[in-house]
Design a protein that fits this description.
By secondary structure, this protein is of the alpha+beta class. The protein folds into 5 domains: about 1-65, 2-Layer Sandwich (Alpha-Beta Plaits); about 80-215 and about 325-390 and about 645-695, no CATH class; about 230-310, Distorted Sandwich (Calcium-transporting ATPase, cytoplasmic transduction domain A); about 405-430 and about 525-645, Rossmann fold, CATH 3.40.50; about 430-525, 3-Layer(aba) Sandwich (Calcium-transporting ATPase, cytoplasmic domain N). The protein has 25 helices and 27 strands. A 7-stranded mixed β-sheet has the order 14-27-26-25-15-23-24, with helices on both faces. Strands 16, 17, 18, 19, 20, 21 and 22 form a 7-stranded antiparallel β-sheet that branches. The protein has a 6-stranded antiparallel β-sheet with strand order 6-5-7-13-8-11, with no helix packed on it. The two termini are about 45 Å apart. The relative contact order is 0.10. Mean pLDDT is about 80; it is low at about 70-80 and about 175-185.
Length: about 700
């Protein structure tokens, strides 16, 4: 037996940190863990008996901090220490850089002023890098902070040597870049040490803010639930004390505290924050409501059916968090590269220094190239490429009522070419309605009156079609499998359950024993199904209707929505076989369904898509869950998934391309260390900013 443990990790500064922690955790017997640099969390499956304290101890021994997460992720204050450190460093660095770059402004002993200004930047501003490098050194490891710390300290210490033991402190010294071609003792790198530190702090601050924005969707989801609830007796209690079976009040404008069933009242409930559906849903006694939705109308009394971790809102949050913790196959490759990247870069920097010295170049030129190699080669962009896109994409999906179970589902969506659509509840509403009346005027009114006490779906459909002004019925009797009978306005009215005929289900109506006419009923097609199916075709997907209904019914529905491939009369096990047949022909199959009888096919398909108003069994067997019972939601899910994967691949391409292009330039002595620092910071900002574009994704259904 296993259990899942989640930890918040502190102190990570790059993907190499996450890889180290992940390896250490996975060395524990029976533990399977993933560590996400972007979300700063570890997700582990551990054997029974192993608690979070054991995992926390491993993380802390590795040199980082760990703790079990709070119920709602905290939002870092705007005035955090990183921001203060950045502002102080920027104010001090600007004069140092300007003096180094503008010879006309260089006065006697200007270099000593630069030292006074640069020293606090390198020591105080760069302290997070130096501290992290030292901690990792104690554990025999090197990370991106090692590169930054070594590079900036080397530039600063070289400058100290040149100022105190060389000729750089002499009056009359001018443009440092001109002097570096001469004696090595004239060269100082204070502008590089201060500038690189400031640029990297700016990049880290922008990255931290962007990651917080990326997590806004999940944080909003977790904060949707009500904090207090008023019981039916008027007592107000914290929502976490509510138990299944309790009845509570929901006044107009209040949030529904938890999942439940309406026992009194009628209202319109705004479900947009849960399902993405903008139109409020009318509810009355007997209808289900979801925790976190807003009562937009009258007062309700609701009986709690699910509380705590069992609610739909908690399940949604759990699915989103699990998806954000996943890693794509291409990201695992990037992680493996990052794991060996820092040691390779350190070796490359030493080799660059040796090469330039060996060719007879001055120490200043060799040192410049080596420091530039250290600074330019940051694996941060590689580590952020996938997780930030996942964070934003899955969060945006949750806002639209699209729950993506994991990164594997995203990768599968890209390959899907065939979509099997269950008919009832997916393409159609799943509710029977009267389509034709074959008989005299008033026939529907009599049939509706005698069916009013019935609980049968056909009876409810007939009563709904007959309207509200119905005469009373006496001597009512229902016979299972046969029909109902009763006295209406002095006449004996019987409604006999009929059988399928063509595209309809017919029922016979008899008055005083004489056949008086027939009513035709059929499931109704959702208005959105036809345009959604057309859009699927434009996305390169071939729709197939699969149903247990008769061929005539299935073909009529298929024709109405524009589907040409139909499999009718299919039992639940037959749906699985239909998926297997298509897969055997080389098709990549997605199955869209909402019922228990769809669960096996959802699990067999390459991609299972469950309609959210369906059963929990179907949702558990699926890869994507749509909180709206609307095929447009399926189209939006495909579009969002493809867009997220596209962003991930774009991020990884540019992250790799940045290092491939930057390292040779640095080693060749064509890149100043300060410019390298700015470029490194911008690469991480670009990756995160590119991912944040997913926040603007708009559904086609609205």
């Amino acid at each position: 037996m296993t259990q899942r443990i989640e930890l918040e990790i502190g102190g990570m500064t790059c993907a190499a940190c996450a890889n180290r922690i992940e390896k250490k955790l996975n060395r524990l017997a029976g533990v399977t863990a993933t560590v996400n640099y972007a979300t700063e969390k570890a997700h582990a499956t551990v054997p029974a008996g192993l608690d979070a304290a054991a995992l926390i101890a491993v993380v802390e021994k590795t040199g980082y901090t760990a703790a079990e997460p709070a119920a709602v992720p905290p939002i870092a204050p705007a005035g955090d220490p990183l921001r203060s450190r950045l502002l102080i460093s920027a104010v001090l660095s600007v004069p140092v850089i300007v003096l180094a770059m503008v010879p006309a402004w260089q006065f006697d002993y200007w270099q000593w002023l630069s030292l006074v200004l640069a020293a606090p930047v390198v020591v105080y501003g760069g302290w997070p890098f130096h501290r992290s490098a030292f901690v990792n050194l104690r554990h025999g490891a090197a990370t991106m902070d090692t590169l930054v710390s070594v590079g900036t300290l080397a530039a600063f210490l070289w400058s100290l040597w040149a100022l105190f033991l060389g000729d750089a402190g002499m009056p009359g010294m001018t443009h440092p870049f001109a002097l570096r071609a001469g004696g090595d003792g004239d060269a100082i790198y204070l502008e590089a040490a201060a500038g690189v530190t400031t640029f990297l702090l700016a990049g880290r601050y922008a990255e931290a803010r962007a990651k917080r924005r990326a997590g806004d969707a999940l944080r909003s989801l977790l904060e949707l639930g009500a904090k207090t609830v008023t019981l039916r007796g008027g007592v107000e209690i914290p929502v976490d004390r509510l138990t299944a079976g309790d009845e509570f009040l929901v006044r107009p404008g209040e949030k529904v505290a938890t999942d439940g069933t309406v026992v009194e009242g009628a209202s319109a409930v705004d479900q947009s924050l849960i399902t993405g559906e903008s139109v409020p849903v009318e509810v009355t006694a007997g209808d289900s409501v979801t925790g976190g939705t807003v009562n937009a109308g009258g007062s309700l009394v609701v009986r709690a059916t699910r509380v705590g971790a069992e609610t739909r809102l908690a399940q949604m949050a759990r699915l989103v968090e699990e998806a954000q913790a996943g890693k794509a196959g291409v990201q695992r490759l990037a992680d493996r590269v990052s794991a060996v990247f820092v040691p390779v870069v350190l070796a490359l920097a030493v080799a660059t220094l040796g090469y330039w010295l060996g060719t007879g170049a001055g120490g200043a030129e060799a040192f410049t190239a080596a420091v530039a190699v250290l600074i330019i080669a940051c694996p941060c962009a590689l580590g952020l490429a996938t997780p930030t896109a996942l964070l934003v994409g899955t969060g945006r999906g949750a806002q639209l009522g699209i729950l993506i179970r994991g990164v594997e589902a995203l990768e599968q969506v890209r390959r899907i070419d065939t979509v099997l659509l269950d008919k009832t509840g997916t393409v159609t509403t799943g509710e029977m309605r009267v389509q034709e009346v074959d008989g005299p005027a008033g026939l529907l009114r009599l049939a509706g009156a005698v069916e009013a006490p019935s609980e049968h779906p056909l009876g409810r459909a007939i009563t709904a079609a007959a309207g509200d002004d119905l005469p009373p019925v006496t001597d009512f009797r229902a016979t299972a499998g046969v029909g109902v009978r009763g006295t209406v306005e002095g006449a004996l009215v019987e409604v006999a359950r009929g059988a399928g005929e063509g595209a309809y289900t017919w029922v016979e109506v008899r008055v005083d024993g004489t056949p008086s006419g027939r009513l035709a009923l059929a499931d109704t097609v959702r208005p959105s199904s036809a345009p959604a199916v057309a859009r699927m075709r434009r996305l390169g997907l071939e729709p197939v209707l699969v149903t247990g209904d008769a061929a005539a019914v299935a073909e009529q529905v298929a024709e109405a929505v524009g589907i040409t491939a139909v499999e009718a009369g299919v039992r639940p096990e037959g749906k699985v076989e239909a998926v297997k047949r298509l897969q055997a022909r080389g098709r990549r199959v997605a199955m869209v369904g909402d019922g228990v009888n769809d669960a096996a096919a959802l699990a067999q398909a390459d991609l299972g898509v469950a309609m959210g108003a369906g059963t929990d069994v179907a949702m558990e067997a699926s890869d994507l869950t749509l909180m709206r019972n609307d095929l447009w939601a399926a189209v939006d899910a495909v579009r969002l998934s493809r867009r997220t994967v596209q962003i991930i691949h774009g991020n990884l391409f540019w992250a790799f391309a940045y290092n491939v292009a930057g390292l040779p330039l640095a080693a060749a002595g064509l890149l100043n260390p300060m410019i390298a620092g700015a470029a490194m910071a911008l690469s991480s900002i670009f990756v995160v900013g590119n991912s944040l574009r997913l926040r603007t994704f708009q559904p086609l259904s609205e």
